[in-house]
Amino acid sequence: GGPSGLLVQFGALIGCPSSSPTANPTAIPSASPTFNPTAAPTASSTLIPTANPSLKPTATPFASPTLNPTTTPSANPTVNPSASPTLNPIVSPSASSTVKPIATPITLPSAGVLSNLAVSSVTSQGFSVCYQVPYSTPTTVSTILTACGGNPNAALFVGSMQTAGSGVFHLGAFGMASNVLTITTSTSTAYLHNGVFWYFVDKQSFGFADSANVALNAADPTSGAYRLSWNACYPNPGCTPPGGYRSGSNLLLNSDSNWQKVIYIKN
C-alpha cells in the first residue's frame, strides 16, 4: 500500500518491465540457433562448379586448329602460270612491226662513169632490173618513172648492153633515184651527182656524161666515149625516129634492136 506499490501497479498498466526480470524466459529457444539456415543445405553446395568448368569450350574444338587452312591445299595452283612470264607481251607481235626501224641509207657502190662492168658485180649487190628495152624502143619520161621511180630513196644503175644476153655493161653509172630521176630543164648543162653529170629533160633527152657540157635536142651528140643518151622526145611530133641514141662512141642506135637500154634498182 505505499508509493512503491503504486509505481508497480502503474508500470504494469503501461507495459514497463518490472525492476527484476523473470528467471526463466516465457519461451524455450529452438535447439539450433537462428543463425543456422532454416533448412538443411543440399548435398552439393551451390558454389561447387559443374562437372565441366565453364572455362572449357562448350564443344570439342576441330581436330586441326583454325590457323590451318580449312581445306588441304591442292598440289597445283588453281591457275597455272603462262609459259611466258607476264613481262612478255600477251599478244605475239605481228611479223611486221607497227613501228618500222629507220632504213639504213644505201651506199652507192662506186662513182663516175663506168665501162665494161660485169653485170654480176651489180646484181650481187642487190640490184635488179626495173627497165630494159632495145634501143629501137621509144623511151619517155613517164615509162621510166613508172618502171623505176616508185622509191626516191632507191639506188639506180643506168647503163647499156650490146645484146640482151650480154654479161657486161658497155657503159653505166650509179646514182640515187631522187637525183637521177629529177626532171631538169637546161639543154646545155648537166647536173653533178656521184661523180656523173645527169640530165632528164622531158620531151628531149635522158642520160649522163663525164662533163657538164651537153647539147640536148632529141639527144646529146657531143663527142666523147663516156656519154650515154636516150631520146626522150616521143611522142613529140618532131622526134623521128623515136629510139636511140648513143652508148659512148656508138651513135645513131635509134633503130637498133640488139643494143639494150637498162636501169637496175636497189630499194
Question: What does this 3D model show about the protein?
Answer:
The longest helix is centred in the N-terminal third of the chain and has 12 residues. The strands form two sheets. The protein has a five-stranded antiparallel β-sheet with strand order 1-4-3-10-2. A five-stranded antiparallel β-sheet has the order 5-6-7-8-9, with no helix packed on it. A hairpin with a 3-residue loop joins strand 6 and strand 7. It has 267 residues and is of the alpha+beta class. The chain has four helices and ten strands; from the N terminus they run αβαβαββαββββββ.
List the helices and strands in order.
HEHEHEEHEEEEEE
Helical run tally: 4
Query: Mean pLDDT, rounded to whole units?
Result: 76
Low-confidence stretches: 2-51
The largest sheet has its strands arranged as 1-4-3-10-2
Major sheet description: 5 strands, antiparallel
Distance between the terminal alpha carbons, to the nearest Å?
A: 166 Å
Radius of gyration: 63 Å
Task: Give the class from helix and strand content and strand pairing.
Answer: alpha+beta
Q: What percent of the residues sit in helical stretches (DSSP H or I)?
A: 10-25%
Please provide the count of β strands.
Answer: 10
Globally, the shape reads: globular
Strand percentage, roughly?
Answer: 15-25%
